Amino acid sequence: MAEWKTLEKFRQELLEDPEFKARFETLDHEYVIAREILAARKSAGMTQEDLAKAIGTSQSRISKWERGEETPRVEALFRIAKATGTEVQVALVKAAV
After folding, report:
1. DSSP of 10-66, one letter per residue?
2. Where exactly are the structural domains of the chain?
3. Contact yes or no for 65/72 (Cβ under 8 A)
4. How far is 12 from 56, CA to CA, in rounded Å?
5. Is this structure's pTM higher than 0.85?
6. Confidence at residue 95, expressed as pLDDT on a 0 to 100 scale
7. What is the CATH superfamily name and number for domain 7-84?
């Protein structure tokens, strides 16, 4: 029987390919917000429908945000934070050269 790989192990193997790694790093920033929204919602014990009702949007919009298909506006991020008992933090830092 074949040994199962963890998701992290699979990710590490993919990132060994320079072409894949370059593409991943280009897109990765697009998914940071999606992962944070999903984590905040789950941590608050909310469904997508619960969060949608709490912030005045649709469940399908929450789903698109969590999949990284759309990026919410800043004001929506603040509504998400309030609804989930979290806070928004933004930092611009000097890039490594």
Report:
1. HHHHHHTSHHHHHHHHHHHHHHHHHHHHHHHHHHTT--HHHHHHHHTS-HHHHHHHH
2. 7-84
3. yes
4. 39
5. no
6. 81
7. lambda repressor-like DNA-binding domains (1.10.260.40)
